[in-house]
Design goal:
This protein has three domains: about 80 residues; about 100 residues, no CATH class; about 50 residues, no CATH class. About 80% of the residues lie in helices and about 0% in strands. α3 runs parallel beside α10.
Length: about 240
């Protein structure tokens, strides 16, 4: 039964455009989680690139030449030598990636659950449907986000080139998109998509099953209803878990 146009205008935005609202909500949750955990990701990347560059230059003597050792000392070194805000250097492509990936997979999962598979008579979503839906949503989300994922990796590799004394290839995120597109065409933006979607399918088999389990638990055991607040709490838990991977 359709809602009259006048009544539809009075509905909250989340009810008028549920898919768009869930996309934005998931993207916002992923952005918050990414901003909170990005310094850890940056520190990990710096340690990896530092070790690879030192090995390339000095071989066995690389261990003694490393300026940072350990996560905490590396993070402190970045703050002291480059500034506190440098802990978020390069966060833009990571946010792009998580907004597209998280929003895409959640909208796909909700569509599969509500339209394709459907819930049981007691409004419960069976585990096997959640597993299959999670894997399919992960494939769709990662395929959509592959260009942003590629740019994120390429931008991280710029740090390694800088340590090795090589010229930088990109001036920023948009320049990286344009250069990859000009050199490899549209297909170039989806380089490496097959192993990426395989990993995303397995990861989301757990992530989205957890999302549904948490949401179902909140609805049954708390005063919360199946609304945007419950979706937000569940998405934040999954988004925080995802950003730390």
């Amino acid at each position: 039964m359709s809602v009259p146009e006048d009544e539809e205008r009075l509905l909250p935005l989340a009810q008028r455009w549920p898919r768009a609202s869930k996309f934005l909500l998931s993207g916002c949750a992923a952005t918050v989680a990414e901003l909170a955990t990005f310094p850890l990701d940056l520190t990990k990347t710096r340690l990896q690139m530092q070790g690879e560059a030192a090995l390339a230059r000095l071989g066995d003597g690389a261990r003694e030449s490393a300026p940072y050792r350990g996560m905490v000392r590396t993070a402190l070194g970045i703050v002291q030598e480059e500034g506190f805000l440098k802990l978020w250097q390069g966060v833009t492509p990571a946010i792009y990636r998580h907004v597209v990936y998280s929003g895409g997979r959640m909208v796909t999962y909700e569509h599969l659950r509500e339209v394709v598979f459907g819930k049981s008579e007691d409004k419960h979503y069976p585990l096997w449907k959640s597993v299959i839906g999670g894997m399919m949503a992960g494939v769709v989300g990662q395929f959509l986000a592959n260009p942003t994922d590629l740019v994120k990796v390429q931008m991280q590799m710029e740090g390694k080139r800088k340590l090795e004394g090589k010229p930088l290839r990109f001036r920023g995120v948009h320049h990286a998109f344009a250069k990859i597109l000009s050199e490899g065409g549209i297909r170039g933006l989806w380089a490496g998509w097959v192993p990426n979607i395989q990993r995303a399918a397995l990861v989301n088999m757990g992530d989205l099953t957890t999302y549904d389990t948490v949401k179902h638990y909140l609805v049954l055991n708390t005063p919360l209803e199946d609304n945007i607040t419950t979706h937000g709490l569940s998405s934040n838990l999954v988004g925080l878990h995802k950003a730390t991977q």
